[in-house]
Amino acid sequence: MSIESVPSTPHRATWLLVGALVLFFVELLIIGVSFKHGIHFTCLANWPSYACRGPSGALISIYCICAALALFAFLFRAPFARLFEVPGQKLWPLGLNVFGVLLALVPITFLTEGSGTSSLPPAMAFWFTGMAAILVGILLYMAPATRWLAFIRDEKWRLLPLVAGGAFAPILATLIRPLWQLDSIASATFSAVSYLIKAFGYNVDSYPEIRVIGANGFFIDIAPVCSGIEGIALVTIFVTLYLYLFKPELRFPRAFVLYPIGILVSATLNVVRIVALLAIGLEGNPELAVGGFHSHAGWLMFTTVSLGIIAAANTVSWLRKPDAKPQAATKTAAPLEPFFQDKTVAMILPFAIFMFSAMLAQAFSQSPGVVYPARAVLMAGTLVLFSQVYRKLDWGIDPTALGVGAAIGLMWVVIPVAEPDTTPPYGMLTGTLLSLWFVARGIGTIILVPIIEELFFRGYLEQKFKRHDTLQWAIGSATAIAVIFALLHGRWAEAFVASLAFSFVMHRSGRVTDAILAHGVANAIVFAVAAVTQQVHII
Predict the structure, then answer these.
(1) How far is 8 from 2, CA to CA, in rounded Å?
(2) Listing from the earlier edge strand, what are the strands of the sheet with 212-215?
(3) Are 424 and 369 in contact (CB under 8 A)?
């Protein structure tokens, strides 16, 4: 038996929704603080690391999913207005929600220091069951199940990238750490924090070589993971979602300015957050400072920054086409091409898989180079799925492309580069396994990587940057892409020159396949020299 509430007016409906959202975030805050500060239980001393990271990461993913949905509601108001037209019609979901909170808090009663892994199964069962009840309860209170099903059915193609982006944003932010110069970012963060805290009159001791700062027994370590890279990644993800959803309405390449603005704002506010928490600790509240420094406060701040930047950008006419019609007013989306026949997807997805596989290798393998054959299989499989698109490209043998590729390859092997003082990328492989590794690396270097990188950088990205068919735009777009291309390669100067050369080849003939050919020839020369001389580090 359910208790029916009175019909909702628009004003009352708004307050019911706001109240439900506030209740939800207060519940998450209570759960997070209770487990972090309410019990004497050191997770890593009792449970495996994955079990400790799981619940915390799940909470952060929930924050990010909520932020993604908030972005959706802000940018596409009509679907959400229909969904939440009559919130609070039944009160029993609130009972389910509160029951979920109680279930999620049950582990507090039996988690004690030294309990070991015996407490892991029941704790996880209570925690995940409780979180499911909390979510289901609050969602059903905000809208009936029938409206949710209709909403998902009508908006699934917009919802999917948003929810997936929100859910995996924390994971991606962690995985991309190896691709950034974290030591440099952490050092810059430390310098800014040290300058600001002293500017506010605090007499602190700072140790730049180990990035430790503080006074009177309270010190914090600004490690690379505290450098704000998660915030930078989160802003990048949400800005990318915004550009994807609103690309028909935005002016490119102007809209790309949101990336540096978002990164700068995120990094600046991260410094401000650390300074504030350091000041709290120096004023005699170290527990509050430590809790805030290592809690979800940073993620909430980064999420808020992301949404704020997008909200502000959505009102800036300079970024939008003057005759663009709001997508929110569009009732039906244009029919989509079959996924594996979509030319845009065929140029972007293989590169995304290529980069994502590199992140996974860096994150989960102590010798990431050893698993290159698995990455090669993944890349090849992705290209095969889009073979119908690639067969339609204008393939041919161009002497200029061959010559440019050979020149770039020779430049790459002639310019000396110091051999790293580490084990080779193939690790301890020998005999047949080493031979197979070189075969896979050769196929990847000579065939797969040129196709994937050129389709993305020259075939897609450079065309997006080039807004007009003039020499000035061609040079400007090629230079911009060369900068991005260089940043993703360790030998950035050589990569910058190579990128300009490949762009020249493509613009000369108008065929991206010539850039692929030049890139493949260059890589073939580099790989041949590396294999013969055993200097694999030059690849």
Answers:
(1) 17
(2) 205-207, 212-215, 218-221
(3) yes
Instruction: Name, in order, each residue with C-beta under 8 angstroms of 461's C-beta and a sequence gap of 6 or more.
Output: 481, 484
Q: Is-contact 238 173, C-beta < 8 A?
A: no
Global pTM reads 0.47
Beta strand 218-221 with 212-215 is antiparallel
Residue 410: helix, strand or coil by DSSP? helix
What are 116-154's pLDDT values in tens digits?
A: 888 888 888 898 899 899 989 999 988 888 888 888 888
Q: What's the confidence (pLDDT) of residue 296?
A: 52
3-class DSSP state of 223? coil
* φ/ψ of residue 246, rounded to 5: -115, 25
Mean pLDDT, residues 309-335: 63
Structure tokens that stand for 448 in this block: 């797969």
Q: How far apart are CA 385 and CA 346, in angstroms?
A: 9
The β-bridge partners of 205 are: 214
CB–CB of 466/449 below 8 Å? no
Query: How confident is the model at residue 344, as a pLDDT?
Result: 81
Q: Counting beta carbons within 10 angstroms of the beta carbon of residue 29, is it exposed (0 to 12), middle (13 to 18) or buried (19 or more)?
A: middle
Instruction: Write out the two tokens for 202.
Output: 């605090």
Q: Backbone phi, then psi, for 331, in 5-degree steps?
A: -80, -40
Q: 213: which strand partners?
A: 206, 220
- Considering only the C-alpha atoms of the chain, give the largest distance between any 2 of them, rounded to a whole number of Å: 81
Query: Beta strand 212-215 with 205-207: parallel, antiparallel or unpaired?
Result: antiparallel
Query: Sorting pLDDT into bands at 50, 70 and 90, what band is 444?
Result: very high
HEC readout, 460-480:
HHHHHHCCCCCHHHHHHHHHH
Residue that has been written with the tokens 């270097």 in this structure: 445
Separation CA 40–CA 31 (nearest Å):
15
Q: Where are the domains of the chain?
A: 1-159, 176-327, 349-538
Rounded to an integer, what distance in angstroms lies between the CA atom of residue 193 and that of residue 272? 8
Q: Is the dihedral of CA 410, 412, 417, 419 positive or negative?
A: negative
Tell me the H-state helices in 386-491.
387-391, 399-414, 431-443, 449-454, 462-465, 471-487
Percent of the chain with pLDDT over 70: 81
85 vs 311 pLDDT, higher one: 85
Pair of tokens at residue 191: 């310098």
Give the amino acid at 74.
Answer: F
Confidence label for 333 from pLDDT (cuts 50, 70 and 90): very low
Task: Report the pLDDT value the prediction gives residue 377, as an integer from 0 to 100.
Answer: 92
Report d(CA 64, CA 61) in Å as an integer.
5
User: Measured between alpha carbons, how far is 337 from 327 in angstroms, rounded to an integer?
Assistant: 19
Per-residue pLDDT band at 469 (split at 50, 70, 90): confident
In terms of pLDDT, which residue wins out, 9 or 252? 252
Amino acid at 325: K
Q: 118 is written with which tokens? A: 């015996």
Amino acid at 539: I
Nearest to 236 by CA among 259, 256, 264: 259
Instruction: Collect all residues with Cβ–Cβ distance below 8 Å to 374 and sequence separation of at least 6.
Output: 357
Q: In angstroms, rounded to a whole number, what is the distance separating the alpha carbons of residues 320 and 330?
A: 17
List CB contacts of 68: < 8 A, sequence separation 6 or more. Answer: 162, 163, 165, 166, 238, 241
